[in-house]
Each structure stands twice: as structure tokens, then as C-alpha cells.
Amino acid sequence: MPNIEYLRSCGISLSQIVFYVFRYPRFFLQKAERIKQFVKRSDDMGIDRKSNMFFIAIRTLSSMSEEKWEQKFKLFRKLGFSEDDILSTFRRTPRVYCIRREDQGNH
């Protein structure tokens, strides 16, 4: 319950929370402090709390270690993306950062 109350205080509607509880139940079992860290990181990256992408952004951040996050940033930089491009992409479509190497096939 504390996680649900905290997310509501961040502006996520109860109907969204119910949807996400069924879709990502393990996310809600994390320690409240961890969820607060993901929210802070999301805020620091400029994700609008009123955006439909807000929960998806914090859920994406929760799905990987800081090390994995940095590896993904390095890859985007190597491909020629600027920091602004990377953050802009994350703000619009955070799920792009959920792609894992094994998801990419044998290309």
C-alpha cells in the first residue's frame, strides 16, 4: 500500500495503478525507497509526471541496474546520438531502453 499511495501522490491515477498492478505486480513489491529513487531519476531526466509515459519510465528504470543503463547510453552515443537526443527519446518512448541484446536476434 505505501507504494501505491506514493505513486498516487506523484500524480498517477488509481485506474492506471490498478492496470499496472496486474501488468507489473513485482514492481509494486519493491521497497518504497527504491521506487522513490526511480521517481527522482525520472524527474531528473525531465519526464513530466502528468505524462502517460511517467509510470513506464520509472518501471523501465527499475528493470535494469545503473551499469546496464550506462551501457545503453554508451551504445546510443556510439551510434551518434547526443545526450539531448537520448533523453528526448527516453521521455517519448522509455520502452526503447528495455531492449536486451538477446531480443535483437542474430544481426
Automatic annotation (TrEMBL):
Domain of life assignment: Eukaryota
One Pfam family here: mTERF
UniProt GO MF annotations: nucleic acid binding
Key word Cell cycle present: no
Keywords of the record: Transcription, Transcription regulation, Transcription termination, Transit peptide
Biological process according to GO: DNA-templated transcription termination
Family: Belongs to the mTERF family.
Protein name: Mitochondrial transcription termination factor family protein
